[in-house]
Amino acid sequence: MIVNKIKLTNFRNHKNLSLEFDYATTFIIGDNGAGKTNILEALHMISTSKSFRARYDSDVINYPAQFSTIKASIKTGEENKENYDLELQISRRSPAGDRDRFNHDELMYSSRPEIKDEIHTSTKKVKVNGVPKSIHGFTGIFKSVLFTPQNIDVITGSPAERRKYIDSVLFQIDKTYKRTHNNYTKALKQRNKLLEMIREERKGFDQLEYWENILEQSGSDIHKMRSDLLDFLDKKAKVYGKTLNSGYYEIEIKYKKSLITKERFSEYRNKEIAAKSTLIGPHKDDFVIEYNNYRLSDFGSRGQQRTVLVALKMCETDYIEEKTKETPVLLLDDIFSELDKKHREILINMVPKQQTVITSTELPVKNAFVINL
Amino acid sequence: MIVNKIKLTNFRNHKNLSLEFDYATTFIIGDNGAGKTNILEALHMISTSKSFRARYDSDVINYPAQFSTIKASIKTGEENKENYDLELQISRRSPAGDRDRFNHDELMYSSRPEIKDEIHTSTKKVKVNGVPKSIHGFTGIFKSVLFTPQNIDVITGSPAERRKYIDSVLFQIDKTYKRTHNNYTKALKQRNKLLEMIREERKGFDQLEYWENILEQSGSDIHKMRSDLLDFLDKKAKVYGKTLNSGYYEIEIKYKKSLITKERFSEYRNKEIAAKSTLIGPHKDDFVIEYNNYRLSDFGSRGQQRTVLVALKMCETDYIEEKTKETPVLLLDDIFSELDKKHREILINMVPKQQTVITSTELPVKNAFVINL
């Protein structure tokens, strides 16, 4: 999979920008505020239809324009012979057709809990080869794997961040996973309501089994798919770990499943009623990254954490490739800051097995394909 | 306020390290994993008695040692003529005196909700000029302001992150604030319990007023102190904004108070009973940083966000100086990564008004006082 060209209109600070990318690796070099990350944001939106950093879609529209467009030419399929022209357009829409009724400042910053941010309403339209499509049909045609410094949360953040990460990978490659995940989440909500009712009104015990069966079924499906991914990442990370520093880095990824079985449900029943909440299952899963037998989150330096994260992103690329038979494009936002020279060089030597777009304030290598912003 | 020397024993990767700092600015330069951040962590622990990155105090002890010591020589008072020798020691302690009873791996990674991380128990002892003190009497003798890349959460994170930030500044300089904050939090908890009781059992209405009076009183005290801080930061940030780039950066900090009054309590009463939770008050406060009239969190580049964050840290230094008549030491962890050359230079020219310790993978200036790790 390759992205040839991208054309941005009124996207963030780029009023009108056309870029061509190298088939191997492109460096986007520019000063702070030049709009380097915005280009990766646009590429990633073409891939997922969502921004990884905007709170509202309308945030990407260059003020005072009314719409913003991203166009991209993609090559895919065997030997990259299939061409796709992808287009995504975001337009502002006044809330309820009457924008001036609202006090904008109040809406944006309100501390009044009942006020919603209606001001940010926008519409999104997508086309494939000039033909309008649904968002669902558009998403995932262009496959990409993104790394931003904020991703460090996967390592240092809460288990919820890690579950979000696993899910985001699996959502991309498996529509069944998404459906199963939705079923699980709905059943979980219902069972928690039931637990509350049981505690407060002492009735509803007879309905527990029904929800527990659904949770057990969908939960173990989720566990199976997550295990498959995490086993793959663990195996591959070990290989990358060796490349990173001639055997010094031993990376191990351990999946910490919160098992969901009839026995565990009986074991936790009383606690769950007291807590009015389901205490076991995939929504309590976590995984641990160890590095030379220590928890990377607690004992790794930030530079080490970043290096391992890039390795993880490359494993993710391999996983998507294995499952979809397409090599995603790697989007690396400022991976070099915080890294010393040795690690910069190792990383640069690792990336060129797929098309890669990298932003940086300075060029870390010679003879590279460079876009200066 | 100046830190002359620091001596680390079994602290993280430093088994035995003695350093002397320059009176103005010291650069700590080293490769990834050399232990640069660990030195700032130690300095900050001498200041606050807590680590800003360890989940458990015992994490800082170099394995397999049983204790870790930080010693620091501080100069303070008028013309920095007072000397203080500060010492902080952390020792491992077996849980319930019997460490081997526990399955360590199970304890550390357990997905079983009832298991606590008892394995990480440790004790902390502090001395001032050789005399044992309470943690309370030790904390704050050495005043410091820390910047780490993770602080970007103050800008891009949730309102809770920003409240935590404001509180951490005020806790440092005002013991009344801490007490008022505790009173507020306790009353809030009680009122939320009461709201739950009212919803479920339709009784307890008569007790609402009691808790609301406490919340109103302590809440408005909190608002007053937070306003004082945020007004100060806003005023100072405007000045630093100009230095940052000859008038280009217009920084504005807007405090978004969630007011707490009798009227608002009546207005929200029904919603609060339905939600079983108090919806107004300082625990819903937020502040917004604008930058050239845009929200920095949504429209600033990461480089811009980092630059403004450093400016914010310098305002914080000024605030502590104004309130305590002591100039805190500035600890800057890797502020240069992600910044272009121009911004690096501007920042370096801004910092030397107080003692500053900076870590970096590369030296960003010539003729600096450097510690090579």
Automatic annotation (TrEMBL), chains A, B:
Residues 3-355 form the RecF/RecN/SMC N-terminal domain. Coiled coil: none annotated. Keywords: ATP-binding, Cytoplasm, DNA damage, DNA repair, DNA replication, DNA-binding, Nucleotide-binding, SOS response. GO terms for molecular function: ATP binding; single-stranded DNA binding. It comes from the Bacteria. ATP binds at residues 30-37. GO terms for biological process: DNA replication; DNA synthesis involved in DNA repair; double-strand break repair; SOS response. SUPFAM superfamilies: P-loop containing nucleoside triphosphate hydrolases. The keyword Nucleotide-binding applies. It is found in: Cytoplasm. One of its GO terms (cellular component) is cytoplasm. The keyword Cytoplasm applies. PROSITE patterns: RECF_2. Belongs to the RecF family. The RecF protein is involved in DNA metabolism; it is required for DNA replication and normal SOS inducibility. RecF binds preferentially to single-stranded, linear DNA. It also seems to bind ATP. This is DNA replication and repair protein RecF. The gene is recF.
